[in-house]
Write a structure and sequence with these properties.
Beta-Lactamase, Alpha-Beta Plaits, binds ligand C2E, alpha+beta, binds magnesium ion, 4 domains, disordered N terminus, eight-stranded mixed barrel, 27 strands, single chain
Length: 727
């Protein structure tokens, strides 16, 4: 039968219908005459008849399909959506109304699927109205399309190789899709899922049935609904070809899944997006780790406050806001007073607890516009914004100090903690962050100098002092290396015989421009860094060398000893004992002739550790002198525990400025106490013979002071030993 007249744009079934209407024959003949698979359906979609081609194409025996709903040939997911509706065809029997070329998927008897195109039209045979459906296998056509996509337009002309390639590539693709570890989905133009792989099901916690035929909205985190839809719209419009975007899903168990979706579209030759392939990456853990890391990078782990990096960032932002709004701001640097003592006395655990509690108290008075930061150790920075006067910054400082008024208690420990605050006011013109914090630091240093619990506002003067202090430290480093530092020696006198029994080594700085810089100025500066260790070992070395050459001035008193002042840092330096051992060896000085001077406050920082060091020094036969006795706040019970060889009574008792009577009583009490404890009592700063007489009468054994001599260079000290100081 010749059907070649099917042309002029009409499809074959239309032509066939026209042909057979003109030449009524049996339906069977009609169907067999068609080049594609075809079936006659009644208005309910039930198959009345079909041709062998359709049976072959679908893998069903012909008889098995007769009498069954045509939808048996569709995969379940397409059963309602793709079949012809009555309203589309109408019920007139003219046979002219036709639905052409609808794409659908045929599900074969063995479950495999093939792409197909179909056309529907009405046909009346012997007064019975039928729908004739013609189904064409589109596998080859799809292969060409795919080959176009895959080879980017390079034509493949051998049909059999196309089919083979298609079969192979389809199998590869199916494996790659279904077995892929990455969650993947195919979706149609409306975002409805056509297929999902196992990994996607696992990621969403849903089965294939729950997903296919739906879009992702019902399990998208509410705030993220619309993200995918927007991407689909942009791809369909041709604005973009592909995209990679972040979005959160809700797992069926309620857990939030943070995902990164890569999507692209398969397009037809006209560039129309046919369907979408998305590959999803579950980045929940990755993101959580990144968030945690960025939190850690910007926060102090102990208190949870902002750290210096975050503070710097906020300060930069605050300053650009201030430039727009014309307001002021302030940086407050707060330092806890004597916090080291808490760590030393109660351990780091209590120290940490105290820091956390203080941070909490500070946070409670931190305004929402401001930033509180732990600067390190026991220092906090407070960034205040939107101020109009300097007084407002002072008010903030007072509020912060106010939180410390109430004592802190942990377990059995009750603590009082105070702090000092330096404030620097800034505006948009101010120097950079580093300098602002330096200025706040200079103001804080001044606050500390004034005593505990002070608030000091930065001024140009304070800045100048800080600069010269800084310069002095630099010069001091240089001085230590270039021989500008010297040790001078002040004689220690036996008050009964007036013989020189020893010397106190006192450091001197002969500055090329400033002249003699007193140790009260440079020792505290050096104590702020490791420089003090360098200075202290210089003092020890020089003093021990000098003392090793001293001979006895009086045969009754033996060779004179040397006393060397130790700072807190050096006394608690683990290298101290070995340094002394090494210097004893080097200088040949008898250990009994070395006495180390420590102040009460140095000795009492950590009493247990101090006693350990003392025991070590005792073992070496080195003596201890408790310097400036009476000025600290020591408990007398520690005096027995420390058991120093010498107690040096502070000059303020020897030459009292006020309340002479009370000082006299104290002086007497100290001398008596020392004598009772079998310690040698030494009075410092004796300038007059009446002071000497009083002390002698009180039974004070030793004395030191300008009455005899100030500290003098080593050679002069050596000369003193040969003559009487009364001369
Ligand atoms: P210090 O250990 O109490 O030393 C006694 C200070 O009193 C010395 O001051 C000394 O010159 C001064 N002095 C002695 N007799 C009299 C007197 O009769 N009248 C008056 N007005 N003053 C007298 P200097 O040498 O200025 O030392 C001050 C402080 O610097 C020392 O107090 C000590 O704490 C510290 N220092 C000195 N040298 C060193 C050192 O090598 N290492 C350490 N760590 N500290 C040192
Ligand atoms: Mg001293
Ligand atoms: Mg002293």
């Amino acid at each position: 039968m010749n059907l070649r007249f099917a042309r002029d744009g009409a499809n074959e079934s239309e032509c066939v219908v026209r042909y057979f209407e003109d030449h009524p024959v049996r339906a069977q003949n009609l169907l067999e005459a068609l080049p594609s698979g075809a079936a006659l359906l009644d208005d309910h979609g039930v198959i009345g008849d079909l041709n062998q081609r359709l049976a072959d194409m679908t893998g069903y025996p012909l008889e098995e399909l007769v009498g069954r709903d045509i939808q048996v040939l569709l995969p379940p997911r397409e059963r309602t959506t793709h079949f012809i509706t009555r309203s589309e065809l109408g019920d007139d029997s003219s046979g002219t109304q036709v639905v052409r070329d609808r794409d659908l998927t045929i599900r074969r008897r063995d479950g495999s699927e093939l792409p197909a195109g179909c056309a529907f039209s009405r046909l009346t045979i012997d007064d019975n109205s039928w729908i004739i459906v013609e189904i064409r296998d589109k596998t080859a056509q799809r292969a060409v399309q795919n080959a176009h996509i895959m080879t980017e337009g390079h034509a493949i002309d051998s049909e059999s190789s196309i089919a083979a390639a298609l079969a192979q590539s389809e199998q590869r693709f199916r494996l790659a899709f279904e077995g892929n570890m990455a969650p993947m989905v195919f979706s149609d133009q409306d975002g409805l899922f056509l297929a999902v792989n196992g990994a996607f099901c696992r990621m969403s916690g849903r089965s294939e049935e729950e997903l296919v035929g739906h879009d992702s909205q019902h399990f998208t985190y509410p705030e993220d609904i619309g993200i995918s839809e927007d991407v689909y719209r942009r791809i369909k419009s041709g604005e973009i070809d592909e995209d990679c975007y972040g979005k959160r899903f809700l797992h069926k168990n309620g857990r939030i899944v943070v995902a990164e979706v890569s999507i692209c579209a398969a397009r037809d030759q006209a560039g129309r997006a046919l369907y979408f392939i998305s590959s999803v990456r579950d980045i929940t853990d990755e993101r959580a780790l990144a968030d945690q890391l960025s939190y850690q990078a910007l926060h102090d782990p102990l208190t949870g406050l902002a750290n210096r990096a975050l503070f710097d960032d906020r300060l930069v932002q605050a300053r650009s806001r201030a430039a727009r709004e014309g307001k002021l701001g302030a940086v407050l640097l707060l330092d806890l007073d004597d916090f080291k003592g808490v760590n030393d006395a109660y351990g780091h655990l209590v120290g940490d607890q105290l820091l956390v509690t203080i941070a909490n108290r500070f946070e409670q008075v931190t305004r929402s516009s401001d930033t509180l930061c732990r600067f390190g150790g026991d220092e906090f920075l407070y960034l205040a914004e939107g101020l109009t006067t300097h007084a407002e910054a002072e008010l903030i400082a007072e509020r912060l100090l106010g939180t410390l008024v109430e004592p802190f208690s942990f377990d059995r420990v009750k603590l009082e903690q105070r702090a000092s605050i330096g404030i620097v006011i800034w505006d948009s013109e101010s120097p950079d962050n580093v300098e602002l914090v330096q200025n706040a630091d200079a103001a804080m240093y001044e606050a500390k100098r004034q005593g505990h619990g002070h608030i000091v506002m930065f001024t140009a003067n304070i800045g100048q002092e800080a600069v010269s202090r800084f310069a002095l430290v630099q010069e001091l480093r240089h001085a230590a290396a270039s021989g500008e530092l010297l040790m001078h020696y002040q004689p220690i006198i036996d008050l009964t015989t007036t013989a020189v029994v020893g010397f106190e080594a006192l450091m001197r700085w002969n500055h090329p421009e400033r002249g003699w810089v007193p140790p009260d100025v440079f020792i505290p500066l050096a104590e702020q860094s490791d420089l003090i260790l360098e200075l202290s070992s210089f003092a020890l070395t020089s003093a021990m060398t000098a003392a090793s050459s001293w001979e006895a001035s009086d045969p009754r008193s033996g060779r004179p000893y040397v006393t060397v002042n130790l700072s807190a840092r050096q006394f608690h330096d683990p290298g101290l004992v070995s340094l002394i051992e090494q210097e004893l060896e080097r200088s040949g000085l008898e250990p009994e002739r070395l006495i180390l001077e420590v102040t009460e406050s140095v000795a009492l920082v950590d009493i247990a550790e101090t006693i350990n060091v003392m025991e070590e020094l005792n073992r070496l036969k080195i003596g201890i002198a408790l310097d400036d006795f009476g000025t600290g706040y020591s408990s007398l019970s520690y005096l027995a525990a420390l058991n120093p060889r010498i107690i040096k009574i502070d000059q303020s008792f020897v030459r009292p400025k006020h309340d002479k009577e009370r000082s006299d009583t104290l002086l007497e009490a100290i001398v008596t106490l020392g004598n009772k404890l079998n310690m040698t009592v030494l009075a410092e700063g004796i300038e007059t013979s009446s002071q000497l007489d009083r002390l002698h009468n009180l039974d004070c054994e030793l004395g030191q002071g300008f009455l005899w001599s100030p500290a003098v260079p080593a050679e002069e000290a050596a000369r003193m030993l040969g003559r009487s100081l009364d001369d």
